[in-house]
Amino acid sequence: MPLFFRKKKPSDDARKRLEYQMCLAKEAGADDILDISKCELSEVPYGAFATCKVLQKKVLIIHTNNLTSLVPKSCSLLSLITVKVLDLHNNQLASLPADIGQLTSLQVLNLERNLLKCLPQSIGDLAQLQTLNVKGNKLKELPATVGSLRSLRTLDISENLLQELPRVLAHIRTLETLLLDISSMTYPSPDVCSVGTESIQQFLCKECGIPYYPPSQYLLPTLESDGGGTSVDGDRAVHKYLEEESEWQNKFLDYEKRKEKKMQEKLEFERRLNMGQREHALLVQQVNSQKDEILQTVREDQLRLEEGLTKHRRYLEEERLKLLQQLKQAEQGVANRIQKLLEDNQRQKQSADILKSLENERIRMEQLMAITQQETEQLRRREVASAMQQMLAESYKNKLLQMTYECRRQDLVNQACSSLAEMDQKFQQVLAWQQLDQNKAVSQILQEIEMQKAAFEALQVKKDLMHRQIRNQIKLIETELLQLTQLELKRQELDTETLQGVITEQRQTLSYLLQQLLKEKKQREEELQQILLEMEAKSETKQENYWLIQYQRLLNQKPLSLKLQEEGLERQLVNLLIELSAERYLPVFAHHRVSLKALSTMTAGDLEKIGVMEAGLQRAILKRAQEILAVAKTIPELLRTVDTEVPAAPEPSAPLEEPPSPAIPTAPELCWDEKKSECVVCMEQEVR
């Protein structure tokens, strides 16, 4: 059996019933009955003891509960001193209080259906007890003091474990009804018990050696002895007893009527309570049904919303992955081109051919300084002067445009924009200078040696092969920096930090290459300036028209592509290499006598053997050659050999502005929402 257990709490109905009965017992004009039955009590509440004590209740009904003890710790049994009827049947009582005999007014004690194993000795002090019901317990014997119950009329000890009756029952002269289990009795024998109460009393009296008197006759001698005398007094006592008994019967009948009335009221109350509870349950069910419908609707809406949100997130994630893939491809292309530039730069640094080319260039320049008599005679003064004038005008125009751009940029930095009128005036001045009289400029150029020298210097810089290659590489690096800046801006808009360090390293590498190429450009310009100074020192012989003759020599000089064509290299092949910015390999193709048809059958390994090391350039050359041959199948005139006749010397004229090298980036083009890029120098201002 567990030492500790949790008391079962009464239900709401039981608690309401208890409160109702307690309030009913305290009302003004209430009867002497306190009925707290069927309230699921584990102990008698303190209020019941207080009510019985204060209001002097005479009937206490506590049946059909879960009582394990009659008196709680904080209460006293003397609070029930006025109780005459105590009904405790259908409980869990295992014992009675030892001082149960203090209830001297008790007349009816109902202990049916409990767990009693014995009765206390003080039960014999209940002198006015008339009915004792201990049916359905676990009694094995009755106490000896039970013989002191002088007023006991009914004793029910059936459905117990009793096998013998105590002889002291013979002293209870008023016992009229004795109920017991005949089959289980051993003393008296079942034969005696089966006859009835009178037979049992006679047997016990015989065993005790006392005479037997019927209960109806027992009071006459007693009353007579108490009255001291006459039969008239005995009749009066019997009459008084009968009146009292009739009065008690009337009281019990009234009690039963009131109990029945209370029961009807209770049933009516419970009926109304059940109806209210049923209506409340119906309302609760309707509310729950509506609540479930609303929750289901909300749940469906939430599921649809979550499904749409999931689809939208999936779409955004797919777009983001596509964009990141494009960015990665662009970054890979930038990295490949940077690697290519590094390889080209390293190869150009380490190539001995460049040094040899520089030396040949110096020898050629020295040869140019020597002016022959034939060139003097063939000098076309007027045409060369016109070409010089056009060259100087272009140079001056470019300088003015550059000055205008620098002024505008300086004005934007200082946030003080110049007026449109001043800008128009500058452009009008430029146009006015462009519209100078050609004849006046020609005559001035013919007279001024310094202008001739300046024109020769500009043409020399433009015709110099190394200077042009450096300019093309600078343009290519600037294009890569611009795409890298756009790529970095797009990453900032996407708020991603992936490969940010790689972009920074690529920018640093390109910036380093740009600085190095600018230094090489400046160095080459200084070398050309030095050559010009040497030519000027040799021209101190005051030879007439020295600079005009040098300018005409540069104009008459055939380009490398024309020379290679004269050597037998196909025009289509030359154009192919120039288109792919691979004119540096023209001598290689001419040396190996590579034709367009032979190129279409070659592989990347064959190109690498003859000196073309870049893998991307190898693929581009082979692909372009196949495309040209595919077009030539439909147009055979494209492959006809060029006439071997040397073209006549072109008329001297100012050289056209050479087109920029087709440095097409290999990275995929990105679609920007807005064309904006930052300056590759300051990294702050947007490019205007």
Give an overview in words:
With 688 residues, the protein is mainly alpha-helical. Among the domains are: 211 residues, Ribonuclease Inhibitor (Leucine-rich repeat, LRR (right-handed beta-alpha superhelix)), CATH 3.80.10; 74 residues, Orthogonal Bundle (DNA polymerase, domain 1). The protein is 59% helix and 3% strand. The chain has 21 helices and 7 strands. A 7-stranded parallel β-sheet has the order 1-2-3-4-5-6-7. Strand 1, helix 2 and strand 2 form a beta-alpha-beta unit. The protein is rod-shaped. The N terminus is likely disordered.
Report a brief summary of the structure.
This protein has 688 residues and is mainly alpha-helical.
Q: Tell me about the largest β-sheet.
A: 7 strands, parallel
CATH superfamily of the domain at 12-222: Ribonuclease Inhibitor
- CATH class annotation of the domain at 12-222: Alpha Beta
Please work out how many helical segments DSSP would assign: 21
User: Which oligomeric state applies?
Assistant: single chain
Report the mean per-residue pLDDT as an integer: 75
Number of strands: 7
Low-confidence segments? 1-5, 220-234, 641-678
User: What is the percentage of strand-forming residues?
Assistant: under 5%
Q: How large, in whole angstroms, is the Cα Rg? A: 66 Å
Q: Could you please say which CATH topology of the domain at 12-222 applies here?
A: Leucine-rich repeat, LRR (right-handed beta-alpha superhelix)
From the spread of the alpha carbons, the general shape counts as rod-shaped
How much helix, percentage-wise, in residues? 55-70%
- How would you write the strand order of the largest sheet? 1-2-3-4-5-6-7
GO molecular function: ligase activity
Region (Disordered): 647-668
Keywords: Coiled coil, Leucine-rich repeat, Ligase, Repeat
Biased composition (Pro residues): 649-665
